[in-house]
Design goal:
24 strands; Rossmann fold; 2 domains; globular; Metallo-beta-lactamase, Chain A; seven-stranded mixed sheet; alpha/beta; 436 residues
Length: 436
């Protein structure tokens, strides 16, 4: 079995791994790296047309956003994923096409993608040529999966993005009864200091901060990924507002978040049982709360920013790389009564990272914007932290080697030090290949 890394090596973004056996060539993920300039996997179109199947761990664009290009380059085989992953990919790609307008994508390619999907269910071994492929709940976002690949002699487990901790939506990754020779793990939060506080503590601090801003008459802006983080944030805000811990103000939901909310509602069977019961056994549906107002017209945004009333705005994009958040920043960032709350990872080179690191001025559409509002970070992460990442190899029987990717090089290097005394541990470089 040969493993080739065409993205996410010594970086976060553009995940793309090729696995080659005697009779098969498959891709695990096909993502883009979003930033000031989008970057694509280092794989040629000639290689893409030799691929027998593409298996997607989850819908986020850094794992799925290269699919339109692959289809436009002539790929004619199937794309395999869970049902909610397929539905969420289409939502995210629609937004990506509109905002980034990638020149390497054709209408025919987009149409071919929709017809190429093949649903795989969790824990059901799928025979593919000389391989057996199994999707396992990863706990990251709706439909996310660990992917196990077995050729009868060698086997690997690819984490995609993984979360072990329980959230309001999911129970965390299912790491029971796993076995493999090789682990390919993400390292987004693999640094020595990447230890998250208990979520209850983080949420309580965030809620206190939101309450203070609202009572002072300000607005709270929460940029968020449309899929995963936004739903977690909205369920938290709804719970605390219903309990009286957050004053009753309008929670505006802007961007692609509402479409993703509908997909979560329709696929609630993939969520934790407590959430299923709440919806199925009562009249209350947290995905359709009366506390939410969906922003459906651009004119509504102008009303929101000009309104003297306090409010909470949950909007895309999560790393502030485009989308409605740019409008809100332009209008609200210079008012010290307002506050921005970051709730997830901010990649190097993004405006989100700049603001996280204390930037006092940003530029949007060639206009300089002063940052007078407070910017605070509360990790409501859908990723495993360092402690959780360290426990994953212990759950896999027969493990011999670990490839570490999907992390800034300092994070991957730090995580390697935790494994190298027990396993062969490798941080691959872009375009490197290994035979296992």
């Amino acid at each position: 079995m040969k493993i080739s890394f065409f993205g996410a090596a010594e970086e976060v973004g553009r995940s793309c791994i090729m696995v080659t056996t005697k009779n098969s060539k498959i891709l695990l993920d096909a993502g883009v790296k979003l930033g000031s300039d989008d970057q694509y996997p280092k794989i040629t179109d000639e290689m893409l047309n030799e691929i027998d199947g593409i298996f997607i761990s989850h819908a986020h664009l850094d794992h799925s956003g290269y699919l339109p290009h692959i289809m436009s380059a002539g790929y004619k085989n199937k794309v395999y994923a869970t049902k909610p992953t397929m539905e969420l990919i289409q939502v995210l790609l629609s937004d990506y096409m509109r905002l980034s307008k990638p020149s390497n994508v054709t209408k025919a390619g987009l149409e071919r993608l929709v017809k190429s999907y093949h649903v795989l269910e969790y824990k059901q071994a799928f025979k593919f040529r000389d391989l057996t492929i199994t999707f396992i709940p990863a706990g990251h976002i709706l439909g996310s999966a660990l992917i196990k690949v077995d050729d009868g002699e060698k086997s690997l487990i690819y984490t995609g993005d993984i979360n072990i901790a329980k959230t309001r939506l999911f129970n965390g990754a299912d790491l029971r009864n796993l076995s493999a020779d090789t682990l390919i793990t993400e390292s987004t939060y693999g640094g020595d200091s990447d230890i998250f506080k208990p979520q209850a503590e983080t949420v309580n601090s965030m809620v206190k901060s939101i309450r203070e801003t609202i009572k002072a008459g300000g607005k709270v802006i929460i940029p968020s990924f449309a899929v995963g983080r936004a739903q977690e944030v909205l369920l938290i805000l709804d719970d605390y507002m219903n309990s009286g811990m957050i004053p009753k103000v309008t929670i505006y939901v802007d961007g692609m978040i509402n479409k993703a909310m509908r997909i979560h509602r329709h696929n609630v069977i993939y969520c934790k049982k407590e959430l299923q019961s709440k919806i199925l056994m009562s009249d209350y549906d947290p995905f359709k709360s009366d506390n939410f107002e969906i922003v459906e017209k651009k004119g509504t945004r102008t009303r929101i920013v000009n309104d003297d009333q306090s409010s909470i705005i949950v909007t895309t994009s999560g790393m502030i790389t485009g989308g409605p958040i740019m409008f809100y920043l332009t209008k609200l960032a210079s008012n010290s009564m307002n506050k921005m709350i970051l709730v997830g990872y901010q990649a190097e080179g993004t405006m989100g990272r700049d603001l996280q690191e204390g930037a006092k001025e940003i530029e949007i559409d060639n206009k300089k914007i002063k940052i007078e509002m407070d910017v605070e970070l509360y990790h409501l992460s859908a990723h495993a932290d360092r402690h959780q990442l360290e426990t994953i190899p212990e759950k896999i029987s027969g493990l011999k080697r670990i490839f570490i990717l999907h992390g800034e090089i300092t994070k991957s290097t730090a995580l390697k030090s935790a494994f190298s005394d027990r396993y062969e541990t490798i941080i691959p470089k872009l375009e490197e290949s290994f035979t296992i």
